[in-house]
Amino acid sequence: MSRFFSDKFTGLEAYVPGEQPKDKKYIKLNTNESPFPPAPLVISALNSNEVSKLNLYSDPTASSLVEAIAESYGVNKENVAVGNGSDEILAFIFNAFCDREKGMVFPDITYGFYPVFAAMFGVKYSTIPLDSEFKINIDDYKSVTDNVIIANPNAQTGIYLERDEIERLIAQNPNRLVIIDEAYIDFGAKSAVSLIGKYDNLIVVQTFSKSRNLAGARVGFAIANSSLISDLGTMKYSFNPYNLNRLSIIAATEAMKEREYFKSCTEQIIKNREYTYHALRSMGFYVTNSKANFLLAASDRISGRELYLRLKEKGILVRYLGDERIKNYIRITIGSMEQMEALISAIKEILR
User: Fold this and answer.
1) Which residues have C-beta within 8 Å of that of residue 63, sequence separation ≥ 6?
2) Distance between CA atoms of 308 and 41, rounded to whole angstroms?
3) CATH code at 40-257
4) For the chain, where are the alpha helices, taking DSSP H only?
5) What's the pTM?
6) Neighbours of 228 (CB within 10 A)
7) What is the pLDDT of residues 111-127, one digit of tens each?
8) pLDDT digits (tens, 9 = 90+) for 252-307
9) What fold, for 14-37+260-351?
């Protein structure tokens, strides 16, 4: 670091994104992207004359996108905030609702950005261990007075908490905020959005990166009561009013309308996930019961790191996270059926 870098960031460990190597062409199963292209309406809209308007600022309210999200989820426009990926929304949440007095609590195995945001914004935080089966026990949060953030399904395990358990978490303490990060909710789980009218201490965060096939567009959103959404608006307009560009607004708006394409893509991912789950189990792997677009898997015949390296040699990228409790695991993004068959074939070769 330079001699000008602020002392307040001493010890800050930045989030490490999944590798994007350029040395050769890989089957990419390491960053939980969709294997499918954007919806046809999205591609058509991006070929419109909006491209010629890139000399003009985008709509700071992203009104067309907010309206499309509100209509899709049966809420009012005042209940929706949009951001540059769900990461920006999460950053606003950490900055707006937490500090050294009011901290954040989350599981010990979860999305790696949570502790980074806490360090970045000077937020105190603590973690609560998942149980021996990598599950969240809601009773462990009963006495927590700080804000709570839960990725559901969980970001590294894919394990899903039923909505009644989420409601129990929210109801434990009305004086703390509960954030449910639903980046992977559309792959066979049920959203907590229906609870926002009942609880004013709930924020649901989602993204267009996974189930809407728009990781490169960088669009995320939050749904909550209007006062919380107003607070997030204050964060946005104090940081970057034009946080979504013209093309991303168009792409996300059309993606939200393409319900049949969305359904067909998510159903195919679920089918491919189940195929991969059973194929890995038949080879003796322990595999989490995931409701996400990835699986967390381990074998007692090979370490997670070695399997990751051997697969990379064969042109297949998976994610090796290396965290102590999951250091023998690899995380496998669910791709097309052709990609999953190639993965299973490669693992069989390696184990032989």
Assistant:
1) 77
2) 37
3) 3.40.640.10
4) 40-46, 63-73, 85-97, 113-120, 163-172, 226-237, 246-257, 259-282, 304-313, 337-351
5) 0.95
6) 23
7) 999 999 999 999 999 99
8) 999 999 999 999 999 999 999 999 999 999 999 999 999 999 999 999 999 999 99
9) Aspartate Aminotransferase, domain 1 (3.90.1150)
